[in-house]
Design a protein that fits this description.
This protein is mostly helical and 456 residues long. It has 25 helices and no strands. The relative contact order is 0.04.
């Protein structure tokens, strides 16, 4: 601290005036490299004493520095409103910091204050910050109004604004509008391609997403790990093991490593493709694991019927200090919800403990839904338990009488137990209620996508 203040003192004496460019550069560097808030406050005081506070660049950097030291409120905001002059650069800093904070709505208030109470007009860096703040606040209608403002100000074709608009509509689930904007852009940067692909992946439109990826490759855009994350998610949704392995191989070859989100997505993809061994191998190679990593693998082993390994993983997770979430365990420091009961019932049914599963749902504090009842009936079908299956299937049919699958499941239970008369009665009941079974379909992997997959 003494060295810092001495440097400031002698540098000020050596300069002829407060507007000296060397002095401004010195303070600019010191503000950027300030190690903590205490140093920053000394610099702040020095700026006030030397009249350098009037320099909009230095005072704006001071606003940013306070925010980076976790003092957005009150220091950054206070400095900003006490600045002798503010330009779009300073407004963008304060709006951007709030847009990325836990108080994104404050960014919108600041923008409206700028618009209504100053002569400063937004540029194509301001509007993306406000649009992202609308996403953070969940303000759909206001976001659409800001889109109109972007058009009015002539910024809709800006790559920065267009990317933010695509991100906005994707975040609100309006994929069609995002794609219209995307297709209307004469030039698209990597951010826009990534935002659109991410939208298709997160909203489970894998076919459209993979078509877009082919277009991206044809356009010569180099994919990064975010794009690979979207591709892995889509391959998992489609059950495309071969293509998922291709994307995984590309990531390994390009040394993207096992970044946490990407690693979790690859584990999930292998689990959805019923490749537990591969999923566990990727899990073991991850440099960092969170509760999602552990929960995914535990769930995968649990659903496959390998309860012993699932429990061993759970104990290992606890030993490593990872606190379970509501997906990991039924009643370990979390309030049980319907999906927790569904998981427990599913485990009992898969193990053939069907009477216990039936007793379990009777003791639930809420009414079981179709998923819970369906898990028991499916277990009855596997373990040939006609008595429990008949009781639960009838509850299912009364709960959702239009679902043909429940009738078919009950009929199959009867048929497996050689009760063909009862099976025929169920089929007749379906006809009487005009309930028909939807024809099944199969999904196979094709080699057509490989031509546009990442080259290894």
């Amino acid at each position: 601290m003494k060295t810092l203040l001495k440097q400031l003192y002698y540098s000020t004496l050596a300069c002829s005036g407060p507007t000296n460019s060397n002095l401004i550069s010195c303070y600019f560097s010191l503000i950027n490299s300030s190690p903590n808030c205490k140093h920053l406050r000394h610099l702040h005081a020095r700026l006030l004493r030397t009249s350098l506070y009037d320099n909009v660049v230095l005072s704006s950097r001071l606003v940013l520095a306070y925010s980076r030291h976790k003092h957005l409120v009150p220091y950054s905001l206070s400095v900003f409103f006490h600045m002798p002059q503010r330009n779009i650069y300073s407004w963008n800093i304060i709006i951007g910091e709030f847009s990325r904070s836990n108080s994104p709505c404050q960014a919108i208030h600041l923008f409206l204050h700028m618009w209504q109470s100053s002569n400063v007009r937004p540029d194509d860096f301001t509007l993306p910050l406000v649009l992202r703040a609308c996403v953070g606040c969940g303000l759909v209608n206001l976001a659409v109004s800001f889109h109109g403002l972007c058009v009015k100000l002539g910024f809709e074709r800006s790559p920065f604004v267009a990317s933010a608009l695509v991100f906005l509509y994707v975040s609100f689930g309006k994929i069609f509008y995002a794609r219209v904007l995307f297709d209307g852009m004469p030039k698209r940067d990597a951010v826009m391609w990534t935002a659109m692909l991410d939208g298709y992946a997160k909203h489970e439109e894998p076919t459209l997403g993979l078509e877009l990826f082919r277009e991206m490759v044809d356009a010569g855009v180099t994919p990064d790990w975010v794009v690979m994350l979207s591709l892995v998610l889509m391959c998992g949704q489609l059950g495309w093991l071969k293509h998922g392995k291709s994307v995984h191989g590309w990531c390994v070859k390009r040394w993207l490593g096992m970044e946490l989100n990407l690693g979790n997505a690859i584990v999930d993809m292998y689990l959805k493709c019923a490749m537990l061994t591969y999923a566990h191998r990727v899990f073991d190679m991850m440099n960092q694991r969170d509760v999602i990593s552990w929960s995914s693998l535990i769930l995968g082993y649990g659903l496959s019927g390998n309860v012993t390994t699932a429990l061993e993983l759970f104990e290992d997770m606890i030993a490593k200090g990872i606190k379970p979430n509501e997906v990991t365990f039924l009643d370990y420091g979390v309030t049980p919800k319907l999906k927790h009961y569904a998981s427990m019932v599913d485990c009992l049914a898969r193990a053939g403990l069907l009477e216990q599963a039936e007793d379990f749902i009777k003791g639930m504090p809420m009414e079981p839904d179709a998923a819970i009842l369906g898990a028991i009936v499916a277990g009855c079908r596997v373990h040939n338990n006609v008595e429990v299956g008949e009781r639960i299937a009838k509850k299912l049919i009364s709960l959702e009488p239009e679902k043909a699958g429940y009738y078919v499941l009950l009929s199959n239970i009867y048929a497996a137990a050689s009760k063909f008369d009862e099976a025929e009665k169920v089929r007749e009941l379906m006809k009487g209620k005009n309930v028909s079974k939807v024809a099944g379909c199969s999904l196979i992997e094709s080699k057509t996508w490989l031509s546009s997959s990442p080259k290894q």
